[in-house]
Each structure stands twice: as structure tokens, then as C-alpha cells.
Design brief:
Order of helices and strands: HEHEEHEHEHEHHHEEEEEEHHEEEEEEE
CATH topology of the largest domain: Creatine Amidinohydrolase
Largest sheet: 6 strands, mixed
Strand content: 15-25%
CATH class of the largest domain: Alpha Beta
Structural class: alpha+beta
Length: 355
């Protein structure tokens, strides 16, 4: 079954005659083409892909399973969609309420004869489990990130700034084959490592610092994501304790991760290790999140997510401890959920590196 067919099958379980795909991720999932801008309407009676002159030729070359139509001043998106609505007798269109803006929705509602109803969950659901081709691409993207990290380690020097280290990391990702970044890399040191999503600045790396690097790249539209924390020169006993606790928490979470397990239970397995070590209040974010065409997808391994992990889900395993104004540690792998456990596709070593 193709990915487009998987999406079309979701129409059978809801009141929609068609789905309107507006996010790049869902358009790529349905069409196998990473077109930067456009919209697509899919139904049992036909599938049409709309984009403007900047991307028309690229769509004609790479979009599969769709009739491709250009968008112009004379034929804007609402007009193209309405033509399809009339041609196919569409009455109800499910749209991506997690992506479409209020202004865009209002414009469409004014122009379309079909009713628009929120359907983000139905549209995105097929992306939760990955097929073999998707898993292969995710592995390749992660291999690039691993290679960049290993090449970066000998370049980390006392006196260089966080920004300089971030720039070197980005260069190495592209040098190893990245087609883009999953997100702007987090590269922080010293007291800044207590900020889970800190921003690289002019602070210079110094002896006794932890250095946290959270980064990933895109390949074929699919994302990698990893975090490693290293030390410069030496660590204090407490720094080592915190590092070892985070690593133990990650290992506990991964040991609990398999098909049939609640996302919240995987989170709990990691969280209890940190709580038992006395650092529970310093672990505020979720244990992990799914990853694919977007770096944050569903389901999430969080305390509030009661959904069941299924075979083929790909998610991060990233506990952390953050002591305000002092230091923090996060370690992150990406894992594939199997029937009898999970498989880490992140190869970079996780033992404490003291450079």
C-alpha cells in the first residue's frame, strides 16, 4: 500500500469526502516530493497538487500520483480547489487545523462551496509508523549526524566560542551529506547548559565546562536528532553523578520502550531514575518525541500521553537534568520501536567524554 493510499483510507473512517494537505510534511508524505510551497486535495475521485510558477517544474518532475495544476493570479488556490470540489462532488473537506492559519481558513471558507472541518489527527495519523523506506532514510540521516559529531570532537577547544563551535558543527553536517538542518543546533557551555533550549552565544568554552550539543540534519526530507554532553578538562563529583544519572535514566527508558507500551510508561521509567537520585524537579520536559518528516511528531513519550507505542514508531530518548545557573546534562538517541524492544540508530558513544 502506498503512502497516498494510506491517507485515502483515512477518509473511510471520517465524514470527509476529501483531505486538503497544506503542510510540507503531509504533502511530501502523500506525493513523495519535498515541494516548498503548495496545497494538495486528495479524494477517492482524484488527487490534485497545486503550486505556483516557482515550483511548478519541480512538481512536474517529482510529484507522483497527482494531477498538477499551476496557481496564478487568475487561478489562485481557492479557485483551483473549488474546481476540484465541483468536478468531484465534494461536500466535506478535512483540513490541517494544526497548520492552516485563521486568515487562510477564512479565505477558503469564503470561496469554497464545500464545508471545511478540522482533521489534523486523521491526516497525520499514517505518519506515526514508518515503512521500510522511511526507516532507511532516517538511518542515513542519523549516520550523517553521528559522523559530524565524531569529526567535531577533536575540534572542540578551550577558548573557542559557542557560536564558533556551532558553525563548525553545521559545516560538518553539510560536508557529510546533509540536505538541510532539522532545527537550529543548540550548542551551549558551562552555566548555559542549564538551559534546555539555550542559544549559542559569544561565551568562550572553559576548563571545567560541560558542553551540550543538540542537533540534527535532514536527508530526503527526513530528520535526525541527537544530543551529546561532553566535558572540558575535568568534572566535579556532582557533575559526574548528574551525567551518570541521566545516562541511567535514558537506558531505563529505552529498556521500557517496545510496541504495546504506553508512551507515559516509557517516560515514567526514565523519570523515576532521576527522581530517585534526588533531581526530579530538574527534569521538566518529556522523555522523548516522535520524529520523521518533522523533528517533532506524535506520539510523544511524555507523562500525559496515554497512547500506545506501535511497531515502526521512531522516537527520541532524551532525559536531562538542569541545575539553574550551574550546569545541565542531556543525552539523546533516536530509537525504532519493535515488538520486543527498541533499537537505537544513534551510534555515537555515550560514555562521558572529557576532552
Amino acid at each position: 500500500m502506498t503512502r497516498l493510499e494510506k491517507l485515502l483510507n483515512r477518509l473511510d473512517g471520517c465524514e470527509c469526502d476529501a483531505f486538503l494537505l497544506t503542510s510540507k510534511a503531509n504533502r511530501q508524505y502523500a506525493s513523495s516530493a519535498p515541494i516548498a510551497e503548495g496545497m494538495a486535495l486528495i479524494s477517492r475521485r482524484g488527487c490534485r497538487y497545486f503550486t505556483d510558477s516557482r515550483y511548478l517544474e519541480a512538481a512536474q518532475r517529482s510529484v507522483r500520483g497527482f494531477e498538477i495544476l499551476d496557481v496564478t493570479r487568475e487561478h489562485p488556490y481557492p479557485a483551483r480547489i473549488e474546481d476540484a470540489v465541483r468536478d468531484w462532488g465534494v461536500k466535506m473537506i478535512g483540513f490541517e487545523d494544526g497548520h492552516l492559519t485563521a486568515a487562510e481558513l477564512k479565505k477558503l471558507e469564503e470561496k469554497l462551496s464545500a464545508k471545511l472541518i478540522p482533521a489534523q489527527q486523521e491526516i497525520s495519523a499514517p505518519r506515526e509508523t514508518k515503512d521500510p523506506d522511511e526507516l532507511a532514510m532516517l538511518r542515513k540521516a542519523q549516520n550523517i549526524a553521528d559522523a559530524a559529531y565524531l569529526q567535531l570532537l577533536p575540534k572542540i577547544q578551550v577558548g573557542m566560542t559557542e557560536k564558533e563551535l556551532q558553525a563548525e558543527l553545521i559545516y560538518l553536517l553539510y560536508r557529510n551529506g546533509a540536505e538541510g538542518l532539522s532545527f537550529s543546533p543548540i550548542v551551549i557551555s558551562g552555566e548555559n547548559t542549564s538551559l534546555p533550549h539555550g542559544v549559542a552565544g559569544d561565551k568562550k568554552l572553559d576548563y571545567g565546562d560541560f558542553v551540550t550539543m543538540d542537533f540534527g540534519c535532514k536527508l530526503g526530507g527526513y530528520c535526525s536528532d541527537m544530543t551529546r554532553t561532553v566535558a572540558l578538562g575535568f568534572v566535579t563529583p556532582e557533575m559526574r553523578k548528574v551525567y551518570d544519572t541521566v545516562l541511567a535514566a535514558q537506558e531505563a527508558g529505552m529498556a521500557a520502550t517496545k510496541a504495546g507500551v504506553k508512551c507515559a510508561d516509557a517516560d515514567r521509567a526514565a523519570r523515576i531514575v532521576i527522581e530517585d537520585a534526588g533531581y526530579g524537579e530538574y527534569f521538566g520536559h518529556s522523555y522523548g518525541h516522535s520524529i520523521g518528516l518533522e523533528v517533532h511528531e506524535k506520539p510523544n513519550c511524555s507523562p500525559s500521553d496515554e497512547s500506545i507505542l506501535r511497531e515502526g514508531v521512531v522516537c527520541s530518548a532524551e532525559p536531562g537534568i538542569y541545575l539553574p545557573g550551574r550546569f545541565g546534562v542531556r543525552i539523546e538517541d533516536v530509537v525504532i520501536v519493535h515488538a520486543d524492544g527498541c533499537e537505537s540508530i544513534t551510534a555515537a558513544p555515550k560514555n562521558l567524554q572529557i576532552l
